[in-house]
Write a structure and sequence with these properties.
nine-stranded mixed beta sheet; Rossmann fold; about 45% helix; about 15% strand; globular; disordered C terminus; 2 domains; disordered N terminus
Length: about 350
């Protein structure tokens, strides 16, 4: 290691990779969790942004959170960048080897989700547990990429403004403005343009069925950048995956309500089952299991109670009832309340009667 220091609470370090200096940071002291929120990153700039820092610090209560800047980006050597899948795998292995980690757990979002899906699928002994947020697995085919790429090379500020607006769907104007400024500090226009082309072309959809490690798919219900249905499709193709729809529309992992995300992630990484396996998730997945509370909700739906009545019976809020119903439908592959009522009645689910009042 070339050096180590501390900046505002995070422990910074560097290692050599193919003659380039790569920066990484750790926070916390629990089991290791590699947190990769995307290629365009800057350990110092992002750390000073309160929403991002709150997410990392919340995770650091339970984990040693490990983040890094790729070569060409952030605090790492800016002389070169390699965004190819082979280059990504080499860098991941170098980071894990340098820190002497056992196969780590990983949280990945944005463009990093594709990379970590590929690593987990192609090298099953290198990832212990995988969680992805807002994942897209296929190539991006729209008319915007070439235009944004050209702007990044010729009108850098305008290009990063457009890219931030595209990336931060569902986020407020202040969050979008900050992200555009952070991109400008993270890398040059040429590097960002190269990343955009590589990330857009990468297709890992054919690898999903090869993933064997426990996998959690997190997605905000009203995400306008990547539809919730795509998250359902991803989870359905990974053996014994867990899908957890979260409230909100923010496509950036650290924006919006992160409390429920952290709670689900902590439970999953500790060996829990998140919200349960997705029905038809792949060979050997078996019959989906409902939690005791989900069985109660399903039974009350079969008895014809409304969400408000179910909430009153169980002593929970209506939004909580809706969240339970969303998870139940995701597990069972059902589309409507009527389908759920019919399934519950046919399955003969009869939990202990919930308390009245």
């Amino acid at each position: 290691m070339n050096g180590r220091g501390t900046v505002a609470g995070q422990r910074l370090g560097f290692f050599d990779h193919h003659g380039r200096r790569v920066a990484f940071a750790t926070v916390g002291s629990g089991p290791p969790l590699i947190c990769d929120v995307g290629h365009l990153h800057h350990l110092d700039v992002f750390w000073r942004y309160p929403p991002y820092r709150r997410l990392v610090e919340a995770l650091a209560v339970e984990f040693t959170v490990i983040r890094y800047d790729r070569p060409g980006v952030g605090l790492s050597d800016r002389s070169d960048a390699d965004f190819t899948l082979d280059g990504e795998v080499e860098l991941f292995d170098r980071l894990v080897g340098f820190l002497r980690l056992e196969p780590p757990s990983v949280l990945a979002s944005a463009s990093a989700a594709k990379v970590m899906i590929a690593i987990a699928a192609l090298y099953p002994d290198r990832v212990r547990r995988l969680a992805v947020f807002g994942a897209r697995v296929g190539p991006l085919r729209d008319g915007y990429r070439d235009a944004i790429e050209a702007l990044l090379r010729t009108q850098f500020r305008l290009g990063t403004d457009v890219l931030a607006r595209r990336t931060a769907e569902g986020c407020g104007p202040a969050a979008i403005q900050w992200l555009a400024a952070a991109y400008r500090q993270a890398a040059s226009g040429d590097v960002i343009a190269r990343w955009l082309r590589m990330a857009s072309d990468l297709d890992v959809s054919g690898l999903l069925r090869r993933i064997s490690c426990p996998t959690l798919v997190l997605h905000r219900r009203d995400d306008q950048l990547v539809a919730l249905q795509e998250a359902r499709d991803i989870a359905a193709q990974i053996r014994d995956a867990f899908l957890v729809p979260l409230d909100g529309a923010e496509s950036v992992v650290w924006e919006g309500d992160t409390d429920s995300l952290v709670a689900q992630l902590v439970r999953f990484m500790a060996g829990g089952s998140g919200s349960g396996p997705v029905a038809g998730a792949g060979p050997g997945s078996g019959r989906p299991e409902l939690t005791a509370r989900e069985r109660e909700v399903a039974t009350l739906v079969a008895r014809g109670l409304t969400n408000a009545e179910i909430g009153g019976r169980l002593g929970i809020g209506r939004r909580t009832v809706e969240s339970h119903l969303e998870r139940i439908r995701s597990k069972l592959g059902l589309r409507s309340r009527a389908d759920l009522a019919a399934w519950a009645a046919g399955a003969g689910i009869e939990p202990h009667p919930p308390p009245e009042g």
